[in-house]
Specification:
The chain has 445 residues and is an alpha/beta fold. The protein contains 18 helices and twelve strands. Among the domains are: 54-187, Rossmann fold (3-Layer(aba) Sandwich); 207-369, Rossmann fold (3-Layer(aba) Sandwich), CATH 3.40.50. α6 packs across α18, α9 crosses α16 and α9 packs across α17. The longest helix has 25 residues, at 392-416.
């Protein structure tokens, strides 16, 4: 549809050089043509024009002093993208690759992801080009305190609720919350999620994105007369998402044979020993190459991208954006892959997504499949508001039901708009409709 193409072109012209943001917008708009044909009012009332423009973009400097007494400077970001259905909600990413375009792509994705959860949360994202790797705890604490000294004025439990993302785990959330509490002189536990259990955190938050991914993939497979049992799985990444996707997949009797980090990947034909991965990554904070010291039968390879050359039934990209391009997609299909589950944000290029769908590969899109993390963050917000603490089992059961409902919503929308089995389009449409209708109800704001 020419009007949607014009909107995309305008986004590209107004946001030069932000290729990740352009890609995210293109991926969503490519699904909306049948929706616009049925509901031309979304164009007539400028809903889509407003949807692709953030409500607010905040950029600030973050000065801090390293352990040698040398002054350092980073840049901080918070993009408050859309609040039509609730306060802004989305993680903070600390990584040297972070710039405004990355944050905007993540914030845009978050709108639809949060909508799909069925919970009242809008879309936002933030972060910094600060790299926690190689920094001492003291340096990370000083950076986090400086970051929050600016960020605090833009967030609140009914305004904007950040969480963690790449480079921001429970340690960083703790430092950020401590500084917020100091400045505000108030125990507002609901202002950040991903907190420790001793000060308002939720059970199952660490596991949620990985578990949720497997719950969604399980629903998708079963809807297509398949199961996880005895399937061979390759997972990129070795952070929280990858680790707990591996854990839940193994609980369903699947065989995970490979995992990676930014330097390379390990292949264990006998199946990944998850306790070893947890020790290396969660306790020692070392490279995944350490795995072969414990399991000599495993192999380590330095090119992380080559992990997709391993023959598998299911591929779970859980590392970072654009992990699988058209070349990797072709290799995966040649080797017999039947399903892709996107655990990271936008881990497949648009070209790869199109190729998978054209070849009838089941594809669980990120904005649906990795929504378990933000869904459990919203459950953490609810617990903080009610001053209660649910058990791990209670939270996990709620998460499982949310992921089932997300799959049903994507499946239903895909069928309703003439694209059965296309869960990418289904998730885009289902997420869009809720936000678009809320925007219409609130007028031109």
């Amino acid at each position: 549809m020419k009007t949607l193409e014009k909107i995309l072109q305008k986004v590209i012209e107004k946001n030069p050089g932000e290729k990740e943001f352009h890609q995210a917008v293109e991926e969503v708009l490519s699904s909306l043509e049948p929706v616009i044909k049925k509901h031309p009012e979304f164009l007539e009332e400028g809903i889509i024009d407003r949807l692709v423009e953030p409500e607010r973009q905040i950029i600030f400097r973050v000065p801090w002093v390293d352990d040698n007494g040398e002054p350092q400077l980073n840049r901080g970001f918070r993009v408050q993208f859309n609040s039509a259905i609730g306060p802004y909600k989305g993680g903070l990413r600390f990584h040297p690759s972070v710039y405004l375009g990355i944050i905007k792509f993540l914030g845009f994705e978050q709108i639809f992801k949060n909508s799909l959860t069925g919970l009242p949360i809008g879309g936002g994202k933030g972060g910094s080009d600060f790299d926690p790797k190689g920094k001492s705890n003291g340096e990370i604490m000083k950076f986090c305190q400086s970051f929050m000294t600016e960020l605090y004025r833009h967030i609140g439990k009914d305004i904007d609720i950040p969480a963690g993302d790449i480079g921001v785990g429970s340690r960083e959330i703790g430092y950020l919350y401590g500084q917020y509490k100091r400045i505000k002189n108030s125990f507002d536990a609901g202002v950040l999620t991903g907190k420790g259990l001793t000060y308002g955190g939720s059970f199952a938050r660490k596991e949620a994105t990985g578990y949720g991914l497997i719950y969604f993939v399980k629903e998708m497979l079963e809807a297509n007369n398949q199961t996880l049992k005895n399937k061979t799985i390759v997972i990129s990444g070795s952070g929280n998402v990858a680790i707990y996707a591996c854990e839940k997949a193994q609980q369903y009797d699947a065989k995970v044979v490979a995992m990676s980090d930014s330097k390379g990947y390990i292949y264990d034909k006998n199946g990944i020993k998850l306790d070893t991965i947890k020790q290396i990554k969660e306790v020692e904070r070392k490279r995944i190459s350490e795995y072969i010291k414990y399991h000599t039968e495993a192999k380590y390879h330095e090119c992380q991208k080559d992990i997709w050359s391993i023959k598998c039934d299911i591929a779970l990209p859980c590392a970072t954006q654009n992990d699988i391009d058209i070349n990797q997609a072709q290799v995966l299909i040649k080797n017999g892959v039947i399903a892709i589950g996107e655990g990271a944000n936008m881990p497949c290029t648009n070209e790869a997504i199109k190729f998978f769908l054209e070849n009838n590969i089941l594809l669980a899109p990120a904005k649906a499949a990795n929504a378990g993390g933000v869904a459990t963050s919203a459950l953490e917000m609810s617990q903080d508001s009610m001053r209660i603490c649910w058990t791990f089992e209670e939270v996990d059961n709620k998460l499982h039901e949310i992921m089932k409902s997300i799959f049903k919503a994507a499946d239903k929308a895909a069928k309703e708009y003439g694209m059965p089995g296309n869960y990418v389009a289904g998730a885009n449409i289902a997420g869009f409709l809720k936000v678009a209708n809320a925007m219409r109800a609130q007028g031109i704001v």
